[in-house]
Write a structure and sequence with these properties.
By secondary structure, this protein is of the alpha/beta class. The protein folds into two domains: 119 residues, Rossmann fold, CATH 3.40.50; 102 residues, Winged helix-like DNA-binding domain superfamily/Winged helix DNA-binding domain (Arc Repressor Mutant, subunit A).
């Protein structure tokens, strides 16, 4: 059974949504504030979250930011007040998967939730390139020969390095501009931190050393993840 966390401080809306999704076959968790939501995220690990922005103990955007900074990839739908385009833009930059504006219909919200779960099911458990294996859900990198454990190394990557390496591995052999990498991984304009990509690439190069792959500089454009010649 799919587990869905609903975070909403308006109790009538929360209860009606809970009943609706329960009838649709979901295991439903509810939270009236950020503190309760955090407890569910730690104990229950829901498959998706429907998160209101305006909550009594803070902003849902802050909770979303904490989740993404901690490396959580649980899909999140933000609930926004009608016309709050700034909230929508901010939420998407922070890593929200979708948004629904209030007021909404149950059918619309259900369709968005079903789409999120389908997308999650399509995410591969791991990506492999040569002797590099990237475990998507645990954010671990494994390098080496699986047969000879003495030549193997496994470690958990910080979120920025994980998402950057995943992007490189999914685009093997392609030239990727530094500003594009920053936008995709950091979710902002690179002008605010021009050395971030360079420093992260430097750390990744050390971690994939001996894997048969390198991250090469591409003059005037950025970087390319490719087999070592």
């Amino acid at each position: 059974m799919k587990t869905l966390l609903l975070v909403e401080d308006e109790l009538d809306i929360l209860e009606n949504n809970r009943r609706f999704f329960k009838r649709e076959g979901y295991h439903v968790l509810t939270a009236e504030n950020i503190a309760q939501a955090k407890e569910h995220l730690v104990r229950e690990r829901p498959g998706a979250v429907v998160l209101d922005i305006m909550l009594p103990d803070g902003s849902g955007l802050d909770l979303l930011s904490e989740m993404r900074e901690a490396g959580s990839k649980i899909p999140v739908i933000m609930l926004t007040a009608w016309g709050k385009s700034s909230d929508i833009a901010h939420g998407l930059r922070l890593g929200a998967n979708d948004y629904v504006s209030k007021p909404f219909t149950y059918e619309e919200l259900l369709a968005r939730v079903e789409t999120m779960f389908r997308n999650v099911e399509q995410i591969p458990e791991r990506i492999e390139k040569g002797e590099i294996m990237l475990k998507i859900r645990s954010m671990e990198i494994h390098i080496g020969n699986n047969v000879d454990s003495s030549r193997s190394m496994s470690t958990k990557l910080p979120p920025v390095e994980f998402y950057l390496l995943q992007l490189f591995m999914e685009n093997e052999g392609r030239d990727l501009k530094a500003d594009y990498l920053y936008e995709q991984v950091w979710g902002a304009d690179m002008a605010n931190d021009p050395n971030a990509v360079k420093n992260a690439v430097s750390r990744l190069r050390k971690k994939i050393d001996g894997s048969g792959y390198v991250i090469s500089n591409v003059r005037g454009t950025g970087y390319c993840f490719e087999r070592k010649v």
